[in-house]
Amino acid sequence: MTEEILKKIKQLPPLPESAMQIEAVYQNPDSTFNDMVKILEKDPLLTADILKAANSPLYGFSREINAISQAVGLFGMGTVRGFALASIVKKSFILDLSPYEISDEMFSTLSKKQHALVTGWCLKKENKLMGVLSPAAFLVEIGKVIIAQQIIADSKQTEFLEAMTRLQNVEAAEREIVGADTPEVSASIFSQWKFEPNLVDVIGHCENPDEAENEDMKRAAKILHVVRVTVPINGVVTDESVAAAKELIAKYGLDLESFEAAIQNL
User: Fold this and answer.
1) Is 254 exposed, middle or buried (0-12, 13-18, 19+ CB in 10 A)?
2) Backbone phi, then psi, for 43, in 5-degree steps?
3) Does 99 fall in a domain?
4) Nearest Cα to 112, choosing from 145, 91, 140, 93?
5) What percent of the chain has pLDDT over 90?
6) 71-81: per-residue pLDDT in tens?
7) Residue of 170, 109, 116, 106 lying closest to 143 (CA atoms)
């Protein structure tokens, strides 16, 4: 990673106290469902953001979720933690994704669809991994914000677009133009903020899952890789992206049936 990118990461402001409290509750093995609810309910704006996210049609619930306790009961602490951290983290950045030719709204849709796919695919059969997968799916793309800043600072927008077209691979274009890719930068951001090592590990290795720390994190990184292939940068799921994802599912030995059901719901 270049010194310029590292400098931008080190200059990021610390996360708000609410994020630290959420992490402390989640990481404490003695914490309860009610402990998480109490922390979240202290912040009305965060509560509103979580409920808005939980009520997205992407999750397919037939009735409205109108309380944090309901959201935690339906999704689990790990997934609601993902909703909360996504809301807090994204407010810590000034977004300008113009080098990627995507708007702020498209960027938001991208993370929402990736998270909805992880939830639909894994909430029941991979529940023990959701504490990592939920925030990872929401946050893995945040490194693009720093990379976009560097591309703009270097006046390499045209060069970057040409590289994406030529290489047909966003990460390869990022590495060629700025010397780092999205998972690497995202992992460095969350390491700087002292997020749990497993989350940093999964995000950082989602392009090379077998290099993750242990078997559970390798599996989570494989799932995240599939999700990012299924829902590409423009947020549009296509027959081609699903076919490429299914090839990875076969390679990694993941659950195809649950994946197909999640795609239908998505």
Assistant:
1) buried
2) -115, 100
3) no
4) 140
5) 58
6) 888 888 878 88
7) 170
Residue type, 256: L
Q: Which of 231, 232, 227 has the alpha carbon at shortest distance from 252? A: 227
Look at residue 97 and tell me if it is in a domain: no
What is d(CA 73, CA 53) in angstroms, rounded to the nearest whole number? 15
Give CA–CA dist 204/103, Å, rounded. 24
Q: How confident is the model at residue 60 (pLDDT cuts 50, 70, 90)?
A: confident
- The average pLDDT across 2-21 equals 88
144 with 34, same domain? no
76 and 208 both lie in a single domain: no
- Residue 124 is encoded by which pair of tokens? 């029941």
Are 117 and 249 part of one and the same domain? Answer: yes
- Indicate the residue type of 165: T
C-alpha–C-alpha distance, residues 152 and 7, integer Å: 15
Q: Do residue 170 and residue 235 come from a single domain?
A: yes
Q: Ranked by mean pLDDT, which of 45-59, 158-172, 252-266 comes out on top?
A: 158-172
148, pLDDT greater than 90: yes
CATH number of the domain that 8 lies in?
1.10.3210.10
**How many domains, the chain?**
2
Nearest to 150 by CA among 247, 11, 24: 11
Write down which residue in 91, 121, 142 finishes a domain. 91
Q: Which pLDDT tens digit goes with each residue over 105-144?
A: 898 889 889 999 999 999 888 888 988 998 899 889 999 9
Tell me the CA end-to-end span of the chain in Å, nearest whole number.
Answer: 35
pLDDT tens-digit profile of 192-226? Answer: 988 889 999 999 999 999 999 899 999 999 999 99
Range of the domain at 161: 3-14+109-265
